[in-house]
Structures are given as structure tokens and as C-alpha cells.
Amino acid sequence: MALSSLVPTTVNLILSLAKSSAAALQIWSLHGLLLTIEAAGLSYISHVQVTLNLGLEILLSEENGWVDLQQGVGRLINAIVAVLGPELAP
Questions:
Q1: How large is the average pLDDT for residues 34-56?
Q2: How do residues 59-72 score in pLDDT, each as one tens digit?
């Protein structure tokens, strides 16, 4: 629960890094976001929509055909499903 106060700031910073045009920075930002989701657990639920929008933005961008980015988005979505649980209702 102590982590819940740090989640919004951490997520906003990592999301801003993930919107960079550098693919390597995006890959590491997605990894950082994954670790944040796993550490925050239920405290992350309020940030799910923003994270899904980021994943969609990365997947639909023309210049980012990197397999590593696609795998990173897949891992991110998997972590979100694990946080939300089987009912998928935040």
C-alpha cells in the first residue's frame, strides 16, 4: 500500500519516455512499465486505460515494426490482465 502513492508519478514519467521516437528507449520504457504494474498490483487499475492506449499507439505506428516492441506490448497486456483478474472489470 505504501507504493500506491508513487504509482501515478512513476507511470506518468515512464509513459512520457515510452512516447519517444527512439525504439530502444520505448523497449526499456515498456519493461519499466511492466515492472511497475507487477509491483503496484491493484494500485495500477486506474492507469490501465492509458497504458492500453499507449500499447495501441505503439503497435499502430508505422516506423515501429520491431519485434521487440511488439513483444513488449504483449507482455504489458499480459501483466494488465493479471492485475485485473479473470473478470476484466476494473
A1: 91
A2: 888 665 688 888 99
Q: What is the grid cell recorded at 25?
A: 528507449
Please name the residue that has the C-alpha cell 511488439: 70
Rounded Cα–Cα distance for residues 24 and 2 (Å): 31
DSSP state of 20: S
Cα–Cα distances (Å) from 57 to 1, 26, 39, 40, 50, in that order, read: 31, 12, 24, 23, 10
Helices (H), the chain: 7-18, 23-40, 48-60, 67-84
Spatial distance between the Cα atoms of 38 and 10, rounded to a whole number of angstroms: 13
Give, in order, the Cα–Cα distances in Å from 24 to each of 2, 21, 64, 72. 31, 9, 11, 11
Q: What whole-number distance in Å separates Cα of residue 37 and Cα of residue 19? A: 18
